[in-house]
Write a structure and sequence with these properties.
The chain contains no helices and eleven strands. The protein is mainly β and about 120 residues long.
Length: about 120
């Protein structure tokens, strides 16, 4: 079984920073894609940032210049460094990954449980 576990969320004042981590574990052959989504109550889930296996990070316009996505392939981990946080960044942040399961060699879409980020004004 493949699992994604996020950590690093919390409460921070506007202008502060947080670093989210997502660790993939289990029967992993390869990870083709990893990304971060967020969803605030009453709002649609949106893609915040993504990174492909070869790099090429991309970001939502609302976070460009403030957030940085990176990955450590050796640790099967993706990070989201969030700087200059704003109250509108408040949401549950979830990790998403497209992973080939070593046991089946099938490409599957996995989600973590989410971590709460709250930015106070």
């Amino acid at each position: 079984q493949v699992r994604l576990v996020e950590s690093g969320g919390g409460l921070v004042q506007a202008g502060g920073s947080l670093r989210l981590s997502c660790v993939a574990s289990g029967s992993i052959f390869s990870i083709n894609y990893m990304g971060w989504y967020r969803q605030a109550p009453g709002k649609q889930r949106e893609l915040v940032a993504l990174i492909l296996s070869g790099g090429n990070p991309d970001y939502a316009d609302s976070v460009k210049g403030r957030f940085t996505i990176s990955r450590d392939n050796g640790k099967n981990t993706v990070y989201l460094q969030m700087n200059s946080l704003k109250p509108e960044d408040t949401a549950v942040y979830s990790c998403n990954a497209h992973i080939i399961d070593r046991a089946t060699m099938n490409l599957n879409n996995y989600w973590g449980q989410g971590t709460q980020v709250t930015v106070s004004s």
